[in-house]
Design a protein that fits this description.
This protein has one domain (about 25-150). It is built from two helices and twelve strands. The chain starts with a helix and ends with a strand. The longest helix is centred in the N-terminal third of the chain and has 22 residues, at about 1-25. The protein is an alpha+beta fold. Strands 1, 2, 3, 4, 5, 6, 7, 8, 9, 10, 11 and 12 form a twelve-stranded mixed beta sheet that branches.
């Protein structure tokens, strides 16, 4: 009888310790809407195939191969599309209008991409930064096409 009580107490303790970790799962910054060819999400040194509906998190990178393309819509309705042989890193993404929390940093590493601003650009335009190897662009609600050549 004593062994069962001890086991139950240990199990209850383990479940209680695990519950906060489950509650702290980050919510996605957005989702893949379209993907074709070789299109990937790089997350914490792991590569996941980009498929429609796949979540994209605040520190993910998007990468395409020579035959790849991917389109993502973020929580604020920002749209990001990558063409073949491209890479964009989502360095930071915060969209919490109820708490006045805004921030987005996109780092365009290589290839071709199109950025179409969403609600964040209207609510907090100074909170958005688009970075390329040669420039940093501030956004005030616009569409930007970027091509980075080696």
């Amino acid at each position: 009888m004593f062994g069962i009580r001890r086991s139950a107490a240990i199990l209850a303790g383990l479940l209680a310790a695990a519950t906060p970790a489950l509650a702290e799962q980050p919510s996605p910054a957005g989702y893949v809407k379209v993907a074709s060819g070789s299109a990937f999400i790089v997350r914490q040194d792991a590569t996941v195939t980009a498929r429609p509906g796949e979540p994209v998190f605040a520190t993910d990178a998007l990468r395409t191969g020579v035959d790849g393309a991917v389109g993502v819509t973020l929580k604020d309705d920002t749209r990001l599309s990558l063409g073949p042989s491209s890479e964009v890193r989502l360095e930071r993404y915060v969209y919490a209008p109820a708490d006045s929390g805004f921030g987005m940093v996109l780092s365009f590493v290589r290839g071709a991409a199109v950025y179409v601003s969403g609600h964040m650009a209207k609510l907090a335009p100074d909170s958005i930064r688009l970075e390329t190897p040669g420039a940093i662009v501030g956004v005030r609600g616009t569409t930007v096409a970027v091509r980075i050549e080696p």
